[in-house]
């Protein structure tokens, strides 16, 4: 019997090469008159943010540029940007950049009208115990990497100083523009990290408790596109065809995990990212093989389908063997695209195992469609460290 569930598409997505040049017209449609354009210095150097500013100004829209985004969206930078937005009396937000930029833009849209107190009570907003007193500002997101899928997800992952963890603040965007040309020329290592972030969104969405036939469809297609095109984009950073396919995959994986969800893999990535500042995409790449091995116990058919999409075959077709073969294939993919191990990044096994309490306590960890024990988390961390050197 097919699983019942809610099929969702959060916001309209304008997809295609050159579409970021329509940002001005779309912003006008959304009644934006004075925009806080959120970006970082790296994106500023590419000229992408400036091009968006130009098309906004051509439509008579005022722009306040803020390029102070830091990696992993710390809550204090959200508060600092919100203060500027309030002082300048902006009425809308546009984020142009990678995952940290888009998540920061999302959080700013909620915090400007509702105050910095939101950042102290993220759990209450995330769990629905508290609702925003004022509607967040209109928000448009324009990704410059193919990985986060943030333009299609309702939360902003914020690094909370108060709670000493990464946590999701609900801030759904109103419009997304996915222009693959903005990702052309992105450095190979950023391309690799971002692509594996999207892969992990897809593979975890398949086994999260809210998975549906719709989210599965998008997740499988994202995995097919990433498996084929990520090594090509990493080898040739100017390959437009590879960039188009990866941009699509990132968005599909974003829709899939916004509808379904992510689970223990992302809890692990959040903990390692918060404790040791390992980039999110690297953590996601490294957790994916052991998560696939673990998931094969409850969902052997789905993990087998991932393998078939990657051109693998299985004999014997036992859950354990399926998990092992697919997990190892993902490790080979990670090696091919240059994902460094945790050891190579200077972490000891003891440091990695020390993340267990933070992982197990994160509510996200328990959204796997099956049972997760403390021993499962320990096994995941040991495998993560030992089986990818
Ligand atoms: Fe992610």
Automatic annotation (TrEMBL):
Where, by residue number, does the polypeptide cross the bilayer? none
| Boundaries of every Alcohol dehydrogenase iron-type/glycerol dehydrogenase GldA domain copy | 13-180
Task: Could you list this entry's UniProt keywords, alphabetically sorted.
Answer: Oxidoreductase
Please name the CDD domains in this protein's record. Answer: Fe-ADH-like
KW Oxidoreductase (keyword) present: yes
Gene3D superfamilies noted in UniProt: 3.40.50.1970, Dehydroquinate synthase-like - alpha domain (1.20.1090.10)
What are the residue boundaries of the Fe-containing alcohol dehydrogenase-like C-terminal domain, all occurrences included? 191-384
**Protein origin, superkingdom:** Bacteria
InterPro entries per UniProt: ADH_Fe/GldA (IPR001670), ADH_Fe_C (IPR056798), Alcohol_dehydrogenase_Fe (IPR039697)
Write out the GO MF terms: alcohol dehydrogenase (NAD+) activity; metal ion binding
Name this polypeptide is given: Alcohol dehydrogenase, class IV
Tell me the classification of the organism that encodes this protein: Bacteria, Bacillati, Bacillota, Clostridia, Eubacteriales
């Amino acid at each position: 019997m097919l699983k019942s569930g809610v099929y969702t598409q959060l916001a309209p997505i304008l997809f295609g090469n050159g579409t970021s040049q329509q940002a001005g017209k779309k912003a006008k449609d959304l009644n934006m008159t004075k925009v806080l354009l959120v970006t970082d210095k790296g994106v500023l150097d590419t000229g992408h943010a400036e091009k968006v500013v130009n098309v906004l100004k051509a439509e008579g829209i005022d722009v306040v540029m803020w390029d102070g985004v830091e990696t992993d969206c710390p809550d204090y930078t959200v508060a600092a940007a919100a203060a500027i937005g309030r002082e300048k009396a902006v009425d809308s937000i546009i984020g142009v950049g990678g995952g940290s930029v888009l998540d920061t833009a999302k959080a700013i849209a909620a915090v400007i009208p509702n105050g910095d107190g939101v950042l102290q009570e993220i759990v209450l907003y995330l769990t629905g115990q508290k609702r925003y007193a004022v509607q967040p500002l209109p928000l448009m997101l324009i990704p410059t990497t193919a990985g986060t899928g943030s333009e299609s997800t309702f939360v902003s992952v914020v690094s909370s100083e108060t709670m000493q963890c990464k946590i999701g603040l609900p801030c759904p965007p109103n419009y997304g523009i996915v222009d693959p040309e903005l990702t052309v020329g992105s450095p190979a290592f950023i391309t690799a990290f971002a692509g594996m972030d999207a892969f992990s969104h897809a593979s975890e969405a398949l086994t999260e408790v809210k998975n549906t036939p719709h989210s599965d469809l998008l997740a499988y297609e994202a995995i097919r596109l990433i498996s084929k095109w990520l090594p090509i984009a990493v080898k040739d950073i100017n390959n437009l065809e590879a960039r188009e396919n990866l941009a699509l995959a990132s968005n599909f994986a974003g829709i899939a995990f916004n509808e379904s969800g992510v689970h223990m893999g992302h809890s692990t990535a959040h903990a390692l990212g918060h404790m040791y500042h390992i980039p999110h995409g690297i953590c996601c790449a490294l957790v994916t093989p052991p998560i696939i091995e673990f998931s094969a116990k409850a969902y052997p058919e789905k993990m087998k389908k991932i393998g078939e999409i990657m051109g693998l075959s299985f004999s014997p077709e036992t859950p354990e063997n399926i998990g092992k073969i697919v997990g190892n294939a993902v490790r080979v993919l990670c090696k091919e695209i240059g994902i460094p191990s945790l050891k190579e990044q200077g972490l000891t096994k003891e440091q990695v195992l020390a993340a267990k309490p933070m992982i197990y306590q994160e509510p996200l960890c328990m959204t796997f469609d099956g049972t997760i024990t403390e021993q499962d988390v320990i096994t995941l961390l040991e495998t993560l460290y030992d089986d990818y050197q």
